[in-house]
């Protein structure tokens, strides 16, 4: 490979203020990179797959709207979870040809600190799965369902956005623990996929069954033990009306509220008294606060995948030019499974 390579990177040129993400927000910048220009401790990576997650759009907003993470800077490349192949190394722990993952700039090539990367074992799974079931999304699902939800055989589990990257894995983790699992999704196609391909006990289309209280009474006549919440708003309120004694609610995301320009406009849940009356627990969490569980999670989920207890889907778009399309699809519910941009074939 030549030392000087053409490189393309996704750059934030305008803060996001609403509507779909377009080229007015994210643009492709062409540069050159000397892949043999690594300083001591650095590696050059040819990026192959890039994760597309809802939080990316948060980080595209003005810094004065930053909630927890540091927002992206204007005229700088954005970052995400990436899987790539080492093409040059000045770091003792990694060699040319190693497959790695880390959080760094969205581009075709990157030079990053070797210590920030994790070398991947690709003998049993696709490398891109380290962005999904074995990556940050997988850890998120495991934390919310296994660590916080603590499912027990025979319990009743409800997962919203159950065909998404996190919901799909959370639902299957509950099934692997012997629970009865029902998911809510946004299309009849997804209902069919969850029932027939991923083995959920049932699923419903929240866009056609619009009385969510009635829907949950129908699908959970005995009540809900665990609610894995990806959407917030009215669905969370409906779930609170159906919780059993000592129920657990795992607050993973609230995508129904992410389009609000002002957090004061967010949906106000009115029935929190149910938490008190049912001795229930509701807990939010951020995956970045639980990295110490990564090895435990990886061992358990990799084992389930080897046994065929967990299946997975990827929704793959081709090339960096498709990044905006992939991000918008995550917010419109257009994906089943993990949204990924494939930069190039390995």
From TrEMBL:
Signal peptide: none annotated. Residues 62-341 form the Enoyl reductase (ER) domain. The chain crosses the membrane at residues 128-151. It comes from the Eukaryota. Pfam families: ADH_N_2 (PF16884), ADH_zinc_N (PF00107). The keyword Iron-sulfur does not apply. PANTHER family: 2-ALKENAL REDUCTASE (NADP(+)-DEPENDENT)-LIKE, PROSTAGLANDIN REDUCTASE. This is TSA: Wollemia nobilis Ref_Wollemi_Transcript_10095_1329 transcribed RNA sequence.
């Amino acid at each position: 490979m030549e030392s000087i390579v053409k490189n393309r990177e996704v750059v934030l040129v305008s803060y996001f203020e609403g509507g779909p993400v377009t080229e007015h927000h994210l643009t492709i910048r062409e540069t050159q990179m000397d892949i043999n220009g690594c300083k001591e401790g650095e590696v050059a990576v040819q990026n192959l797959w890039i994760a597309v997650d809802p939080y990316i759009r948060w980080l595209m907003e003005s810094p004065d709207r930053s909630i927890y993470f540091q927002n992206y800077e204007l005229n700088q490349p954005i970052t995400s979870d990436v899987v790539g192949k080492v093409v040059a190394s000045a770091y003792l722990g990694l060699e040319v040809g190693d497959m790695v993952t880390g959080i760094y700039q969205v581009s075709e090539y990157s030079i990053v600190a070797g210590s920030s990367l994790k070398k991947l074992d690709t003998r049993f799974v696709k490398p891109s799965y380290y962005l999904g079931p074995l990556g940050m999304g997988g850890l998120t699902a495991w934390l919310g369902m296994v660590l916080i939800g603590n499912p027990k055989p025979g319990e009743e589990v409800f997962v919203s956005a159950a065909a998404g990257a996190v919901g799909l894995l959370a639902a299957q983790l509950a099934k692997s623990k012997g629970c009865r699992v029902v998911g809510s999704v946004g299309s009849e196609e997804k209902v069919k996929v969850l029932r027939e391909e991923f083995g959920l006990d049932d699923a419903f289309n929240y866009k056609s069954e619009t009385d969510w209280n009635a829907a949950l009474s129908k699908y959970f006549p005995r009540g809900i033990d665990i609610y894995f919440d990806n959407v917030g708003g009215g669905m969370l309120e409906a779930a609170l009306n159906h919780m059993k004694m000592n129920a657990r609610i795992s607050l993973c995301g609230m995508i129904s509220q992410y389009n609000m320009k002002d957090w004061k406009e967010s949906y106000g849940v009115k029935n929190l008294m149910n938490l008190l009356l049912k001795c229930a627990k509701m807990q939010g969490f951020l995956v970045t606060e639980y990295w110490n569980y990564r090895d435990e999670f990886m061992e358990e989920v990799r084992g389930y995948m080897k046994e065929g207890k967990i299946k997975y889907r990827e929704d793959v778009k081709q090339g960096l030019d498709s990044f905006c399309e992939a991000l918008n699809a995550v917010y419109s519910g257009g994906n089943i499974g993990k949204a990924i941009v494939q930069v190039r074939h390995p």
